[in-house]
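# nightly structure sweep
# worker-07 picked up a monomer target from the shared queue
# config: single-sequence mode, recycle default, output format = structure tokens
# input follows
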Amino acid sequence: GHGKCDCGKCKCDEGWYGEACQYPTTCNLTRKKSNEMCKNSQDIICSGAGTCQCGRCKCANSEGNELVYGKFCECDDRECIDDETGEICTGHGKCYCGNCYCEAGWHGDKCEFQCDITPWEIKKRCTSPDGKICSNRGTCVCGECTCHDVDPTGDWGDIHGDTCECDERNCKAVYDRYSDDFCSGHGQCNCGRCDCKEGWTGKKCEHPHSCPMSVEESTNKCQGNSNLPCSGRGRCECGQCTCFPPGDNRVHGKNCECDDRQCENADGDVCGGHGICTCGRCICQDGWFGKLCQHSRKCNMTEEESRSLCESADGVLCSGKGSCHCGKCICSPQEWYISGDFCECDDRDCDKHDGLICTGNGVCSCGNCECWEGWTGNACEIWLGREYP
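# output follows
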């Protein structure tokens, strides 16, 4: 919006420069504010691969090859260049954000290896008994499945088998996602199926035979208004929920429906110190608003100053998905999944486990899970401790 396109090149208006006319020649931001706008999710300015110019990253492409790019210079396609041939993905694939996506018949980090079997044979070897490639739980490389493993110890983990057909996560009751206790501790897991000990029944051996209720009645009583028994945060036995982790009173309610951890910001402050938490929702003091009471209703900025701080790198106000208040973007509450300083993030991109975003053991930050202490994994599904408080 700051120039004209002439034969594939931008001719910039006065006061703007850059290959896309994205940089102003004069800047009204302080260096500190500018640098804050250029930090990636690890708080590194322009990912260490560029310089910050008035809140926008200028990526280091000394040879003019445009191999380093992205809003925060986070993509480096030089990683795709093969050392021997000097070609990107050895000419047998395409590079996207530093990763090679290989053509059929080629594999390897740089698409440098060719398969010695036909595509038909590759597919045949990787097809699981249910007709899916690697059971949709792995990647087929030259006729062999590499399973998506979630075990931090380096052992075979929860997903295994020649075609990743065995998923032992199916043996874990919802509440067991933070332990290695399969089949509720009352059975043996065999390729994703629980064989229960005497006195126990249910798909996950969670139901005592002595209980007067059926498995379905018990589950329905524990489910309440949630889609999962005990809201996915507790143990259901004979219609009663025990919330987990034990000893953490932030998770409570008849069906463990209240999770007060949702009221905490990244620093552990409850409702930003400007409100109280009730059943996982903040009730703000007068003069404050927002999901975590993080916005003050008072503002000492002019409308123009406020809007200038809410513009994203492409010049759009809050990425077109929110409103601007006192120099900060307030993302549309109707679209719960929109987040980020400029409403540029889609939290639906965060990984799920047990049907929950970040497994309920962390918060989604710009499409990536930030796990609470003691948890790890793409979806915060792995507990690193040995026992619970």
